[in-house]
Amino acid sequence: MDGSLTYRYDTTGRPVALLPARCKLGRHFLGHLQLRAVVHDGEAHISCLACSNDGVDDTWRLTATAPAPERAELSDELYHQLALRRAQAASSWDKTS
Q1: Domain map (residue ranges) of the chain
Q2: For the chain, what is the largest distance between any 2 Cα atoms, rounded to a whole number of angstroms?
Q3: How far apart are CA 88 and CA 51, in angstroms?
Q4: Pick from 40, 57, 95, 97: CA 20 to 30 A from residue 13's CA?
């Protein structure tokens, strides 16, 4: 797992899922036409469609603690540290191989 899916509540009290605004590798900003998001069995899978063509691990796997809400938004801030740590870990792994 890469982390936990984050939610906020709108003015009517309904949950809104906050999805990563960047792909897992930090290469692309995700827009409505550049991602696929599925919540199933307590996991949210958010895939970057641009990265999926490269044959790399492009899917964020986030723990979902609630059923899939009707709405979702992109958030660059919430998942930035996760993407940064992943990029740093990949960089240090490349140096040791």
Answers
A1: 3-84
A2: 52
A3: 18
A4: 40
Give the mean pLDDT per block of 10 residues along the chain (97 residues).
91 94 85 85 90 79 89 86 71 56
Torsion of CA 78, 81, 84, 88, to 10 degrees: -160
**C-beta of residue 74 within 8 angstroms of C-beta of residue 20:** yes
State the Cα–Cα distance between residues 61 and 71, nearest whole angstrom.
Answer: 18
What is the residue type of 79?
Answer: Y
Tokens read off for 40: 């199933």
